[in-house]
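Suppose you are handed a protein chain with no further information: no name, no annotation, nothing but its sequence. What can you learn? This example shows the usual starting point.
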Amino acid sequence: MKTILKKILYWKLSFFYKELNINDNHYPIKTLFIYAFKQKILGYNRKTPWPVHYSSKIICPQKIQRGTKYPGFGHNIYLDGRNGIIIGSNVWIGPRVSIISQNHDLNNYNNYTPSEPIKIGKNSWLGSSCIILPEVELGNHTVVGAGAIVTKSFTDGNVLIAGNPARIIKTLDEYSE
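A reasonable first move is to predict its three-dimensional structure. Written in structure tokens, the prediction is:
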């Protein structure tokens, strides 16, 4: 009975979200309905095709390729996808994280500079209040410490990075699924 009810509720939620996955068991259905109301009815991040917390801000969601989790589900997350963001599967994003893919032209602040998309490898974790800046690429299983400012790429993966600017603090073992 529970499975049938869950399928019905997810079917109703699919009217609000194009990218809703019924196999996402770790998102409470009650929370998804609250997010759907605030997002689609009240208008917070209305154009984003996946559930987003009302305090988060998603710019240009059509250029964000998400993995298995919903980026922006946490509190006060800022995603600027104007140059593209590619997020791997099982990427955890903490509260107040900023991922900024676009920067201003230094000679004319009214213009933006085109750049490569930000890439975040699978099984990564972005700690609270960290900032990922344009053209950064993080390898698989990269843990970004709370408050870190990532200005350059760490493509090797299996590392813990932290600080301002971020640097490798520790090498990690392979991620265990």
